[in-house]
Amino acid sequence: MKRWNGWGRTDYEYHFADSSKAFVEKNVGKGEIIPDATLESVLKKVPKSRLPDHALYTSDAESRVRHARGQSSPDWIAMRYGTVDHFPDAVAMPAQKEDIETILNLAKKEHFNIIPYGGGTSVVGHINVENNDSPTLIMDLSAYNRLLHLDEISNTATFGAGVRGPDMEDALKRHGFRFGHYPQSHEFSTLGGWIASRSVGTQCYYYGRIEQLFLGGLMHTPQGNLEMLPFSASAAGPDLRQFALGSEGRMGIISEATVRISPIPEFEHFYAIFYPDWASGFAALHEMVQSRLDVSMLRLLDKFETETTLQLSGKDKLVNLADKGLRLIGMGEERCMMLFGITGTSAGARATLHQMQHVAHRYHGFLEKSFVGKMWFASRFTTPYLRNNLWECGFAMDTLESVFPWSKIAAVKDEVETALFNGLQDENERLIVFSHLSHMYTDGASLYVTYLFRRTADADQTLARWKKLKKAASEVIVKNHGTISHQHGVGMDHRPYLPLEKGVLGMQSIRNFYSTFDPQGLMNPGKLYKDGDNDSRKSNS
Ligand SMILES: Cc1cc2nc3c(=O)[nH]c(=O)nc-3n(C[C@H](O)[C@H](O)[C@H](O)COP(=O)(O)OP(=O)(O)OC[C@H]3O[C@@H](n4cnc5c(N)ncnc54)[C@H](O)[C@@H]3O)c2cc1C
């Protein structure tokens, strides 16, 4: 069963070793053990629903609590301290398109809001009820999740948009295919959510980014249905799929999506290369990307992330052994780890591995072929469970991300990290901050920063700490002309920064476009932009 107030299933726990806890405490101080609010206490806060009873949705308090928040830091604070105060009035789980349309028509007639909901894994406040003025219904698509059509010749598949990552892969595997979109939230996030929030998977160089994978589909809007035909390519004017991508529930509900799929590859393996320091790892990475080496995944961890990854892996003996071995070959305190994957044919993989090794060698890199990459692969979807352990020991963890040109990224990385390190100086609080470059382009790379700080028994104080840190880092990002999000989307948390990159006219066109489909403003209000806000205060034009 899915947890109601944290990450993941209730029957899985990450192994958090004493040494891992000691490592965190050494860096930020001892954590305070603060009991979570109980589900019963939160259930008592759920007010009477303002929606009339209907067979297509439930107003049951537990369903409303379980759909109230996502996975952002403010969401965790609200749910785990029990300070959550806005709840949806009802939850619908339509299993057919007709039910989606019936509910949409009802919303128009009764004037209630609808929040489309995939897996609720948003980390930026995409699915929260922000304003309690009008009743809100969560439309959870998880029951509309089946493989509807497979074209084994053209390598395309049509799915109900509520399908979760593992179920999608299982359905395709039976026919010898793979979708290959692997965000770290894969266990719970859904096809509709990936499209609506423009998510990015780890192996996107081989399988494609969501905007390359999404061919077309069906969007139910308050003004009617929009069918986006699955053309391989089209020059027939603007591409409406681009408006569905990143629509964050404002335009309508995606019920079905046709996507590109790949035959299960003959070969797939993950590797690590250790470099003596950041400068050599960075130079090697740059050369590998500019040479367009055929990897499916590529990332470079800085020395703090390299160290923290090893320390929090819970595998003390192996880590000590690896540490000794690496030191013997000159990889000391400054060492940085590169992780990469190769997917495709065995012959192609041999050639790519050889090329990667060749570049790495020139920058004094050491290729580790058998253990670290395998360990990364095995734990790629379980690492998020560590956030539960850290929280229970008194620590909050969050991430943020952007993308910058190669010429700027190293300097901006330092600036963002410094802003976070110093972000709680006024409270004498220390932080753990580390980064990796996660997705590469020939013109730039995405920066993914993780930070960890102590929470207190006071929910408001913990939230205030997060706000301070988020603001400090976001300001550095926008000051350096980075996008406010490379992959997590806008939701409510990034909303204040969006006008800086889109400008007044840009924001107006987004508002106007979505209001064509939803003139009453019923769909997911407050996400991307605040209704009624004129954006001028934050504009760049
Ligand atoms: C541990 C963890 C790891 C993560 N790793 C990654 C990562 O590697 N890459 C990445 O890009 N993101 C990542 N995320 C963020 C998140 O998983 C993505 O944003 C994901 O795309 C959200 O999908 P979801 O199905 O959970 O959507 P939700 O969170 O339920 O919704 C997200 C938005 O999409 C809208 N929406 C959902 N379904 C539909 C639909 N059918 N029709 C219309 N609108 C819809 C919602 O209204 C909302 O605005 C991570 C999050 C967590 C908690």
Report on the structure:
With 541 residues, this protein is of the alpha+beta class. It folds into five domains: 34-141, Uridine Diphospho-n-acetylenolpyruvylglucosamine Reductase, domain 2 (2-Layer Sandwich), CATH 3.30.43; 144-263, Uridine Diphospho-n-acetylenolpyruvylglucosamine Reductase, domain 3, CATH 3.30.465; 267-380, 2-Layer Sandwich (Alpha-Beta Plaits); 384-479, 2-Layer Sandwich (GMP Synthetase, Chain A, domain 3), CATH 3.30.300; 495-538. Helix content is 36%, strand content 20%. It contains 19 helices and 18 strands. The strands form four sheets. A seven-stranded antiparallel beta sheet has the order 15-12-14-13-17-18-16, sandwiched between helices. The chain has a five-stranded antiparallel beta sheet with strand order 5-6-10-8-9. Strands 1-2-4-3 form a four-stranded mixed beta sheet, with helices on one face. α11 (278-290) crosses α14 (346-362) and α17 packs antiparallel against α18 (459-479). The longest helix has 21 residues, at 459-479. The structure holds flavin-adenine dinucleotide (FAD). Residues 7, 70-71, 115-123, 126-127, 141, 161, 183-185, 189-190, 192-194, 196-197, 199-200, 248-249, 253-254, 384, 487-489, 524, 527 line the site of flavin-adenine dinucleotide.
